[in-house]
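Protein modeling request. Please complete all fields; requests missing the sequence field cannot be processed.
Requester role: graduate student
Desired output: 3D structure, token encoding
Chains: 1
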Amino acid sequence: VQLVDSGGGLVRPGGSLRLSCAASGFTFSTYVMNWYRQPPGEGRDLVARISTNGLITYYTNTVKGRFTISRDNAKNTVFLQLNSLKPEDTAVYYCNAYLSSPYSDYWGQGTQVTVLS
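Delivered output (117 residues):
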């Protein structure tokens, strides 16, 4: 099982990035996919979630209207489009795959997003 996060970088406020998470080794289409983030010195928090078929999404309030989660089950990949970035979005972003029954929980290695003027 592998989740490979990519797409992070250094951007100025107002900029955009597109994060990708490529999955392998499990049945991707049956897993709810999440993006979490962990700012420096803080805990890891849920940013966005997408259902198995991609029709239902959830966003934490601080990113609503700016971030968009999507998935391509044919390519075993989940994306997070980050627009109108703010310095407070600076964090390591982690992809997560979750299945409730039987319980399975996989994590990517993280990708650093830094928003700096």
